[in-house]
Amino acid sequence: MADTEKLDLQPKKKGLTRRQKRGLSRGVQYVVFVAAVIAFAVAADWGRLKNQFAQADIAERMFPDVITLALKNTVLYTVTGFAVGLALGMLIALMRLSSVGPYRWLAGIYIEIFRGLPALLIFIFIGVAVPLAFPGTEIIGGTYGKVALALGLVAAAYMAETIRAGIQAVPKGQMEAARSLGFSPARAMVSIIIPQAFRIILPPLTNELVLLFKDSSLVLFLGVTLEERELSKYGRDLASQTANSTPILVAGLCYLLITIPLGLVVRRMEAKAQEAVK
Question: ABC transmembrane type-1 domain spans which residues (predicted)?
Answer without folding.
Answer: 71-266
